[in-house]
């Protein structure tokens, strides 16, 4: 029983130590060095960081926003996907950390969503912004809503009705 408790406690602190370790690395070097480390340790560092980000753990979200600004395209893309997931749960917090120019790039559907899922999720996110008065009134909330709306109505998400079949001409 003591071993189970010790293992549980160690597992509970592991996420916090990951973010703390990455913060120390960032303080000693720069964003691209930390992203290189994450790329080299994808399953043991990048994926756990992104799970924490998607779960809206504030320290992980904050770190992921900073790391998303690096020059490594694959890392930045992965960070963007994690932040898109977080924006579905804690939009106000995520948007507050972004520069205004970053908002439209982040407020899009995830590449893993199919058209039906994207349409449903974009509608839900628009409704969430509309239901949150401070977010709805903020410039970042308005920009995010506009980006979601644009994607919903002008991209692959749009589901168009099929044209009605032509009627047979009567002779």
Structure commentary:
Helix 3 crosses helix 4, helix 3 packs parallel to helix 5 and helix 4 packs antiparallel against helix 5. With 171 residues, the protein is mostly helical. Helices cover 73% and strands 0% of the residues. The longest helix is centred in the N-terminal third of the chain and has 27 residues. The N terminus is likely disordered.
Shape: globular
Strand fraction: under 5%
- Individual helix count: 10
Largest beta-sheet details = none
Mean pLDDT: 87
Percent helix, as a range, is: over 70%
What is the terminal-to-terminal distance? 87 Å
Order of helices and strands: HHHHHHHHHH
Q: Structural class from helices and strands? A: mainly alpha
What's the count of strands?
0
Low-pLDDT residue spans: 1-13
Instruction: Please tell me how large the radius of gyration is.
Output: 20 Å
Task: Summarize the topology.
Blueprint: H1 2-28, H2 31-40, H3 42-54, H4 58-67, H5 73-87, H6 91-97, H7 103-106, H8 115-131, H9 133-137, H10 139-154
Can you describe this structure in just a few lines?
With 171 residues, the chain is mainly α.
């Amino acid at each position: 029983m003591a071993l189970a408790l010790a293992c549980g406690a160690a597992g509970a602190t592991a996420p916090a130590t990951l973010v703390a370790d990455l913060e120390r690395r960032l303080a000693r070097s720069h964003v691209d060095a930390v992203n290189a480390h994450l790329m080299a340790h994808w399953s043991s560092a990048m994926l756990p960081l992104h799970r924490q980000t998607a779960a809206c753990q504030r320290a992980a979200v904050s770190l992921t926003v900073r790391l998303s600004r690096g020059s490594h395209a694959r890392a930045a893309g992965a960070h963007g996907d994690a932040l898109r997931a977080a924006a579905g749960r804690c939009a106000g917090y995520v948007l507050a950390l972004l520069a205004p120019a970053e908002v439209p790039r982040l407020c899009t559907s995830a590449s893993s969503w199919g058209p039906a899922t994207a349409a449903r999720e974009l509608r839900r996110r628009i409704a969430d912004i509309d239901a949150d008065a401070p977010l709805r009134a903020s410039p970042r909330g308005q920009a995010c809503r506009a980006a979601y709306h644009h994607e919903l109505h002008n991209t692959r998400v749009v589901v168009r009705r099929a044209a009605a079949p032509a009627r047979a001409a009567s002779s």
